[in-house]
Write a structure and sequence with these properties.
Oligomer: single chain
CATH topology of the largest domain: Rossmann fold
Mean pLDDT: 94
Number of helices: 16
Structural class: alpha/beta
Distance between the termini: 31 Å
Number of strands: 13
Order of helices and strands: HEHHEHHEHEHEHHEHEEHEEEHEHHHHE
Low-confidence stretches: 1-18
CATH superfamily of the largest domain: SGNH hydrolase
Amino acid sequence: MKVRLLFIGLFACVVLMAQKPLFKNGDRVCFVGNSITHGGEFHHNIYLYGVTRYPKERVEFYNCGISGDVCSGVLKRMNGDILSHNPTHVVIKIGMNDVNRGLYAPESTKKADVFEKRTLAIETYKTKLDTIVRIFLSKNIQVILQKPTIYDQTAVLERQNNIGVNDALKQCADFIQTLADKYHLPVVDYWTIMNNINKEIQKKDSAATIVGSDRIHPGTVGHMVMAYQFFKDMHQSGTVATIVIDKDVKASNKVSENCVISNCVKNKNETSFTVKEFSLPYPTSEGQQPALALVPMIETFSVEKLVVKKLQKGMFTLTIDDSVIGKFSNNALDSGINLSMYRNTPQYKQAEQVRAFLSKMWKAEGALRTIDYVEIKHLGDYKGDRNDVAALKVYLDDLFKNKLSDTKYYKIQFDNYISVKPNQQKLKADAEEMRNEAYKTAEPKEHVFKVVPSI
């Protein structure tokens, strides 16, 4: 609890107010980047927010991250991998590989021309990122810029520490702000929040890190922090619903938000009412729980407030659809409780069902992205039939053996590619089916609330 209070103090909460969705019905959003985007968790979290908060706004996200990519790679795959989706928006995060981390390795620092090469890498990054942005803007595509995540050069880890990489990424982050100002674009600042969190957690544990043991890739916790920062910098609404039970239905609906209240009955024995909320609370996984001690995700971006006024003094039991949610004092109910904090409500369970369908969709999309990755990065010179899996396997096995055998990652990706390539069309159909089920499951439902004196 002390950790949570500390970070709530460090990172001010966004004003909670109803707002229009960032992405609207029919929008097609490409997330463009390297392996951190390729891995996908942060934009999965953003999509989950969209489906649960705005279930009538059907939006499609496209994973356009490629492991190991740089700005020149984005330019090469611009038409076939990004513009082919006909995006209305692109969300760009690139830079981790552009700084050329190898130039900061201990052995490289001894070379006479290393500083010149470092400068050239960053200048090349600036020029090409500007070009990427101008291409999208020329096609009337809305652009959202994202500053890089950090390279952890302060944690005490076994992994070699290429000191200076994070400083180079700060230069990239500063340039992105300059680019945003130049073209009047929104920007999300991952670098600052992750750097600040790292400083705080490493005061107590020198081996703690908001990214992974490789110093580069955020895990589940880091990606949740990224989603929080995205919502914050994009000024997203924190209100799921504000349910205020006043003297009658008319008065209650007048002061409530994003919901409709009906069948309100108040007497000394019971206060009961029916509520149809138009959004669902944001459901978090078990793996994401540590992130909630670092950033006030639920308190800021999943506020499902229930207020019951003018109850007699004492303790009351709240039920929703006859399920006991908890016991609360009259003062707590008069001030308001955040139902999103209670994972046993029917609304939260409905949101978890949405997440379950989206998880299946992301699994199918992940397999499809493996196909894209191998074909973009490793099959550019392949002249054979890409539906001939046997021939593809021979080609990729030879490629790994003769050129890439020092990195097991490539073998894993090649084997995965051979496994999923025959199911490419089915995976596309499965992903679309799961998207449909997620939106269908997120549709608003009526729930019966009862507040009765506790015995």
